[in-house]
Amino acid sequence: xxxxxxxxxxxxxxxxxxxxxxxxxxxxRRLYAASGLALVVVLMLTAVFDNIMIGxxxxxxxxxxxxxxFVGIAPxxxxxxxxxxxxxxxxxxxxxxxxxxxxxxxxxxxxxARPAEGQDE
Length: 121
Prior knowledge:
mainly alpha, 121 residues, membrane
């Protein structure tokens, strides 16, 4: 299996999870905007550090399994995993109910785990 095909599997699962999260919790769009910004930073770090690791011989790729497209000396396939993470991690967070601030605002409580002052548990 080529690295590109392996990336397609991970990216497909991540995209599906992100689509489900956006469909079930449209408010998670803010989460994806923040994740997009984080993705830009992670892609830049990936470009720098993958090129260093490949350049010093720490990592090598079978030329028969890569697409032949490169960013510096790093194959583009190296960038699929950060993209998958930027899609999958916020999706899982959203689907598990991770944004507690929204729940607190809806319920009128300063913190969902604690009742507001003067309220019984």
